[in-house]
Amino acid sequence: MNSIGPFSEEHRLYPLIITINVILTTLLAVMSAVTTIIANSSIQGELALSNTDAIWLTTLYLLGVNTTVPTATWFASHFGYKRMYTYGVLIFTIGSAIAGFSHQFSILAIARVIEGIGAGFIFPIGLGLLVQSLPKEKVPLGLNLYIGGAFGGGLGLGIPLAGYFAQYGSWRSVFLLIIPLGLLASLSCWLSRKKVASTESYPFDYRGFICFATFIASLLVGLTLAPIKATNEGWRAPHIIALFTLAAVSFIATIFFEKKHPHPILPLILFKDPIFSLSSTAIFLLGMSLFASVSVSIDYMLNGLHYEKFVTGKIASIYGLAMATFTIIANQLIKFIPVPIMTITGLSILSYSYFLNNELSFLTGVDQVLWILLIRGIGIGLSLGPTTLLALHGISSELKNSAATLLTFLRQVGGTYGGTLIAIFSIRRTIFHTARFGEQINNQLPAYKNTLQNIYDKFPDQMSAKEAIVKNVLNQAYIQGLNDALIAFGYLTATLTAALALFLVMKSFKKTAKS
Prior knowledge:
By secondary structure, this protein is mainly alpha-helical. It is built from 16 helices and no strands.
């Protein structure tokens, strides 16, 4: 009698192997995403990049992810989930290898797009593969392990690793580390595939995809280029206006084609369910927090507090570790606490963490930064899994895969546009605060004279003392601009949380009244 190997679906260890595989590869994709955030200045210095070029290192990766995710389900349905997942891991690994050995911006930019395309298959197909491979009663546990281990672990390990290598070694090391792990993961998934033909045969929504990809790319490029100083006329520049016009036209065309196609890449019919609509909006905001808010925290520590990269990485790791821990805790709590209450609680804690940013300055200590990151990680850990379950609760079984893919896409888009929107908002607020704080630098004001007199003996001349005051003013204006951007996110999240809570209460009352 032939023995059943561990890569066979009949083997008792098969679900464990698939779960570890999916968590590991998703963790690597998250690590790659955050590497350029903390190692940005090291890459910029070694490759002699301008500030404009450096912006694209993360943007191109996320652009590749966002344009690929909606197509992943179609490819998986036609060619097999494990086959396409293996290809996605291989594409991502090849992109990481090119990034690790690149010595030119153009090569690194291409590598980041390739990585993003591979990750665009990894995120949704990996989640689908996990759901298919686990027994039904184990799916909530698998989902929370996936979110906590892959995203929390990816941030908790990726940020300090990138900080360590950027400071003491080479930023290339993180990309090179991905190569053997990616090859191992793709091999194990390839060995466990079934050699059977797919039963799906519906046509690819190519018109919807082209319009949607054009919308995503033109809007992202426009939002990225418009605020930077190198863009003449800023938002009024002809090419920026053209990009936004193209985005608007392609968005309308996307909706038109998606409504007509029998199997659209973006099933808009899902948004007829108000709970799915509100929950998917929450997923979008959670995506913003997942990637964008940690990016702001890293910027604050590197440029506002002038911490070293490795120190910054160690401090920021508490965010990922808290998220991973409380995602697992959330899985246990939902056995006793209704999912909607868990969702509202987690989103409320996340909103509170945003408002705490108003207390940060250039004099802030490590403990306060750690506290904010810890609370933010707890909020996401308690809300991301339950919000996903809440969104999928009322969806029919035939639309569940499409809904999961759409939620994955919204989470990634939230991370992409969250960083861009924070940059836009913080730049405007930094200008405002610079003008407001700058009004206090006036030789006629007694407070300014006293400050100058108190620090004069610490500098060689009065001009150096004045320059130090100006430098601190500019630094605090920059920090307050970042704080204002996150506080604005806090208001958005709090408003959505209140709307979701109100709707769920009203729905509960209606259900009680009918019964």
